[in-house]
Amino acid sequence: MGITAVDISNGLATGEMVQSLPALQEYAEMYRKELVDNVLPFWLQNSRDDRNGGFFTCLDRTGKVFDTDKFMWLQGREVWCFSYMYHNVSAEKSWLDMALHGAAFMEKFGRDQSGNWYFSLTAEGKPLVQPYNIFSDCFAAMAFAALDKVQPSDKYKEIAVSTFNNILERQHDWKGVYNKAYPGTRPLKGFSLPMILCNLSLEMEHLLGSEKVNELAPVVIHEVMNVFYQPEHGLILENVNPDGSFSNSFEGRLMNPGHTIEAMWFIMDLGRRLQDEALVKKACDIMLRTLEYGWDKEYGGIFYFLDLLGHPTQQLEWDQKLWWVHVETLVALAKGYTYTGDERCLQWFHKVHAYTWTHFKDQQYGEWFGYLNRRGEVLLNLKGGKWKGCFHVPRALYQVWNTLKADNI
């Protein structure tokens, strides 16, 4: 297998080391094995609630449940994950059973009377937090669309499509009555929803139809690549004024390198679908620029939040190293190299792979840690919670494996 991640101090690989690192196909097998032998079994064994339905996501290092609240966006993500893996990896009955189990709970308890998906429920399915967060809806649509691919159903189609249409209706004021900002003073628009729609539209193409995706794609691409992108810096911001101009405020200066990098592999996939090589290259370049900007040159790893102008951020966790940021970066680098042949992607892949597999992978128990301090030490040893569930790690493992396997290079 060549040199391992732990042999590379701080995730930094020299030119000589790179030559002895695993070949791309060996990387592909490493990621496949981790997905099917370690990560998916962890969730299969520990997250299913057989009493009330749905999934527990608050799991400690060993997989023991430490809190029973159920967060709808994580319920949707786990339904999507097991549906997707059943469809794309192997028709394992246990994977389909998990997807159906979670979907039944979501269908029964997940929405209010207007069809909006709650943020969280009790273990029994009673609403806890109102549907203020449209990302619950995004991952519900994604979940039922994926499930419909493996077990076609008019019911699943209807839930997915009606939810997606509701997202489009709410997109310009998605918090609605739950928005705590005073109206009109600083009406910023956020990057997260256009970013998600890039991926969600492709995930749902079999239900929406190619014509609808072709209609949506230029709109979301424009938002991501023109409105939020700041050409003078080569970077993307989390919030801008409604006309796309810069807001010199905490929110307006905020950068989330992980969001940008994840969005760029969504854009690369859209560019491939549209046969737009220039778009793919631009997304790859932005991804690399963001990674260079966001990399912690002292301790290694990617910062969680940064201020565009170098001022202190509001987020006290700005210097933490998070699982999803790093695994999504690995996906973006694998796709960037495969789609464009840019050698910088391969060099960075070696470097980020080494850091990620050394620091986030739990060598003793299943799944991966989510939260490290700046020095790369485990900050919380949980494997799932309110924000981390069965999604980023398995999706990234699949995406890297599928992108780097022999027939794609």
What is shown here, in short?
The protein is 52% helix and 8% strand.
Give an overview of the whole structure.
With 409 residues, this protein is mostly helical. The protein has 14 helices and 14 strands. The protein has helices at residues 15-20, 24-46, 72-88, 93-109, 134-150, 154-170, 192-203, 205-208, 210-227, 257-273, 277-294, 323-340, 343-359, 392-404; strands at residues 58-59, 65-67, 70-71, 120-121, 127-129, 189-190, 229-230, 235-236, 239-240, 254-255, 306-307, 321-322, 371-372, 378-380. The protein has a three-stranded antiparallel sheet. The two termini are 19 Å apart.
- Strand order, main sheet: write it out: 3-4-5
Q: Average pLDDT, to the nearest integer?
A: 93
| Main beta-sheet annotation | 3 strands, antiparallel
Structural class: mainly alpha
CA-CA gap between termini: 19 Å
Q: With helices defined by DSSP (H or I, 4 residues minimum), what is the helix count?
A: 14
Amount of helix: 40-55%
What is the tally of beta strands?
Answer: 14
List segments where confidence is low: pLDDT < 50 over at least 5 consecutive residues. Answer: 1-20
| Global outline | globular
Strand content: 5-15%
